[in-house]
Structure formats: C-alpha cells, structure tokens
Design a protein that fits this description.
single chain, 454 residues, mainly alpha, Serine Threonine Protein Phosphatase 5, Tetratricopeptide repeat, Lysozyme, 3 domains, 23 helices
Length: 454
C-alpha cells in the first residue's frame, strides 16, 4: 500500500498543472460566454479566431453543444476565413464523438472536398470513411480509405487507411478483394508492422469464415516472418489463433503444443490456463499473481458495493476498471476530459445520471467518488446487458465505445473471449482489455464477491 500511495502522490504532482490549466480555461470561457450574449440569450458574433479558440476549449472538454455554437458562428459568418476548415472538421468530429455519424458525415465530406490541401481536409476524408463503416456503408468506407492512399501517399494515416480498407471490404462481404488488398498492402510495406497488420486482418478473416487450414498457414507465416512490435497483434495472440484453428480441425495434440508455447503471464496465457482447467487439467495460476499484492487494494469498498450490488455487477470488475482508469485517484483528469475514479466524461455521464439518481449533474460532480462510481456502474450495467456479460467486450466498450465493441463482437465467430479480443481494432483498447482482465483475474483470487480478503 505504501508503494501505491507514493505512486499516487507523484502522479498528482505531475498532473496537477495540466489539470488546473484545463479546468481554468473552461471556467474562463464559460464566464466570457455569459457576457457575450444578447438580451434574448443568443451568442453574439465575435472575431472568427475568438469563436475558434472558445470552441476548441469546449471541444477539448467534451462539451460539444457549446463547442458547436461557436463553430456555427464561423460557418455562418466567416466563409472565407482560414478558420473555416477547422470549424467544419471539429463540428463533424464532435458529432463523431457523440456517435451521431449521420450528422457527422456532411461536415467531414465538405471539409475533405473543399480543403483537400489542409490537414483538416485529410483528416476529414479519413474519418468520413470511419463514419461510413459505422453506419454500415462498408463499400463507401473502403472506397474512401483507398482514395486517401492515392491522394495522400505520405499522409499521417496512410498505413492505417490501407489496413482499414481490408476490414471494410471484409465487412462488405467482398472477401476476394479483401484478400487482394492484403497482398497490395504487404507489397507496399514489406517487413513492417503494417504488413503484420495486413496479415493479421487475413488471419482474422479466415477464422471468421471457418477457413481453418488457411488460418493455420497464415499464423505459421506470421510467426516465422513478421514484425510484431508496434503492431495490432502479438506472437501470443497469433499462437492462440493458430491453436484455435487446429482445435477446430480436430488436431488436439497439435493445438495443445501450440497453446503450451504461449507466454503464461500474457492475457492469452490466462485463457489457455482456463481452457486447461475446464478440461480437468491442473490450473496454473502463477501467471496471475503480482509480486506486490498491495497494489490491488479493495479501495472505496463501501461505495463500490452500494453501486454494484443492486445492478448485479461483480464489484471486483469495478475495481479492475478503476485501477486501470485512475489508479484509485478521485481527482484524476485525462486529456480527453474524463474525470474521477472511473474516468467518466460528461457526455457519457449525462446518458446515465438521471437513472443513477443525479439529475442535476455537473462536470465537476464527477470528482465525487460516490457520484462517479454510481454513474459508472449504471454505464457498466448497460454494457453488460448489451454484451451478454462478456467482460472483454464490456471493457472494450468502456474504453473504445459500445458501437465499436458491438462491431468487433459481430466479427467474432464463435463469440469467445480470445476471438473477440483478437478483433478489437484499436491498439489502445486492446491493451486496455488485456490490463483490465489481468486486474480482474487478480482481484477474483484476492477477494470474494463482497470484497472480503480471501
């Protein structure tokens, strides 16, 4: 516990300056806006640069309605100003963060067509494709990502655009073209993590389609030739998928040999341990237990139990999330304006605050432990219902959005933890799932469901 407290103190010192500046900037802009309104409450027209600056502060704090009020002033009054492309892009992105993709697309389409030489234009094209994918326009998404690779061969997201187009073609059911795009990507980026990601896309597609001999061959190729560092996958994940494909072919002995090569301490090592346990083998728990179990306290026990029990949530999973989100720091604030123990953003919290019992919620209320935990548990309960209790999907959704997690789950055949996790499409979210599930396994060994130490 002493080690944890020292770490928290250092974290507080390191983050306090940025935290204070962000909160101070938001308060300052809100005060300026109060004095920048006409008698009927409408925002008066200011300089384009002032609207852009204030809009950015709201945007960075995920107060998107207020941000769009300023951006709209630019769109209505400063059509020839240099701020126009940024106002279009951030308006679109604000709708993107709210998952209102249909509303988002026109703004990103406009900025990509009218300002193609700007970064806003490049980003607009890339994220327009992302929107199309999320509303099921998979053919259009593939087309736009391929257009990005042609228009911006040195663009910041060109490698992702190549790989994303593979998945878009797969979602469109255009498997032959998806396979061809894998080959195109490999030839364009040989020996790089982008080639690894392209092969990983092929491997996932083969698992999804039940092409298990092909999946074994692709996994073997990846193990022998590819570069894993910085990619969307790992050698342990590829070994797991290879073992899974061998099992599906009835080659149990070969599958067990592959499973046995997986690093015991990894997420996939944990899945193998559980698989062996369910088959009657002796379970190896050494991969789970940390060197210092004091790093896994039952912090905020009463608040967690009060919020988790009525919602039928395992309180140990709440602790697993909390440890990863804030390391038990109630004043934590991220660069994306997530606040408090469970790192709730105000836009997400406002979806659950009334049902959680906080109808007049303000952003600063999220620093209160009970408020934060209760609203987060309402969120988690909703996710559990959506994803049938698959905790990997709940964790992925908590970090990467429920729409993304639902799409990744739809790719998973069968809908098992390891297959789902291999489909997670954001490296940050996949790493988050690994860490949360490791935390959860440890908490389950250390505590019972009432958070009493075993």
């Amino acid at each position: 516990m002493k080690k944890l407290l020292v770490f928290l103190a250092a974290l507080l010192v390191a983050s306090s300056s940025a935290f204070a500046q962000s909160e101070s900037a938001l308060r300052a802009v809100m005060e300026k806006d109060r004095s920048s309104r006409s008698a009927d409450g409408r925002l008066i027209t200011l300089a384009a640069s002032e609207h852009l600056a204030r809009g950015r502060v709201y945007f960075d704090n995920r107060q998107f309605v207020q941000a769009r009020e300023h951006f709209q002033k630019i769109l209505d009054n400063y059509k020839s100003d240099g701020a126009m492309s940024a106002a279009l892009f951030m308006t679109g992105r604000s709708y993107y963060w709210e998952r209102n993709y249909q509303q988002c697309i026109p703004y990103l389409d406009k900025v990509s067509r009218e300002y193609p030489a700007t970064k806003d234009g490049r980003e607009g094209l890339y994220f327009e494709a992302s929107c199309d994918l999320r509303v099921g326009r998979n053919d259009e998404a593939a087309k736009l990502w391929q257009q990005y690779t042609v228009m911006y061969p040195a663009g910041e997201r060109v490698e992702n655009a190549y790989v994303n187009s593979i998945d878009a073609l797969r979602e469109a059911g255009r498997y032959k073209e998806a396979e061809q795009q894998v080959d195109v990507t490999r030839s364009k980026f040989p020996g790089t993590t982008t080639e690894t990601n392209a092969l990983h896309a092929r491997l996932r597609m083969q698992i999804f389609r039940g092409q298990y001999p092909d999946a074994v061959a692709t996994a073997a190729l990846m193990q022998a030739q590819t570069k894993f560092g910085g990619s969307m996958t790992s050698v342990d994940e590829v070994r797991f998928l290879r073992g899974f494909a061998l099992e599906k072919q009835g080659k149990k002995a070969e599958a067990m040999a592959v499973y046995g090569s997986i690093t015991p301490a990894s997420y996939y090592g944990g899945l193998v341990s559980e698989k062996l346990s369910s088959g009657g083998a002796v379970r190896n728990t050494a991969y789970v237990m940390p060197a210092n179990i004091g790093d896994f306290p039952a912090a905020f026990r009463s608040e967690i139990l009060a919020a988790a029990r009525p919602r039928r949530i395992d309180p140990r999973f709440v602790l697993a999330l909390m440890r990863q989100e804030s390391t038990f720091n109630p004043t934590a604030r991220s660069g994306a304006a997530a606040r408090g123990l469970m790192q709730q953003t105000i836009d997400t919290a406002l979806k659950y605050n009334v049902k959680a019992g906080y109808p007049n919620l303000r952003a600063e209320d999220l620093y209160d432990p009970q408020t934060n935990i209760t609203i987060a548990c309402e969120n988690i309960a909703d996710l559990q219902k959506q994803f049938g209790g698959l905790y990997e999907a709940v964790a992925a959704s908590y970090n990467g959005g429920d729409d993304n997690a639902a799409r990744w789950l739809s790719h998973s055949k069968p809908k098992e933890p390891g297959i789902f996790t291999s489909e997670v499409g954001f490296s940050e979210t996949k790493d988050y799932v690994f860490k949360v599930m490791r935390n959860y396994r440890i908490y389950k060994q250390l505590y019972d469901e009432n958070l009493n130490r075993r």
